[in-house]
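Tokens help. One example:
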Amino acid sequence: MVNSDSRIAVLTRLMHGIGGVGLVLMMFFTVFDVLFRYMGRPMVGSYDVISLMGLIVLGLAIPETTRIEGHVFVDAVIEKVGPRTKRTVGVITRILSIGLFVLLFAGSVFKGLEFQSKGEVSQTLHIPLCGAIYAFAFCGLMQCVIILLEMVQLIKGGTENE
């Protein structure tokens, strides 16, 4: 629904692309770790890298998926009501979603600050964890922007699932 703002589209596509590269790197790390384990030389720190990349890949995928309406919609009840009710339910749903992602953003920032102050690092490679947490927080913030733009477009007269 949020196809009107090209800057957001470019940013979410960029995030999605970076997430795709991260997913490919995770796959390579996993494959090479298995191969090297088979040869008796496991890759040190592969668990650290794959875990942190998984968090970032997950966060990077959400805004673009929302922008292109890639999520599953359960709309059996909504299809039977009028456009005004659809719009009202859509706005309420988006307000609740923004609230959820604001909580996710705030919680991630606070956890990142906590990890940064304590100097938390990964177990094997000693990679600072706060960077991945902050990246995930940024993704939550971007999700709030996408949902807000959807809600504005819906209020201006768009319909649900155009």
Remarks:
- The radius of gyration is 19 Å.
- The chain has one domain: 6-155.
- The first helix runs from residue 6 to 38.
- Residues 6-155 form one domain.
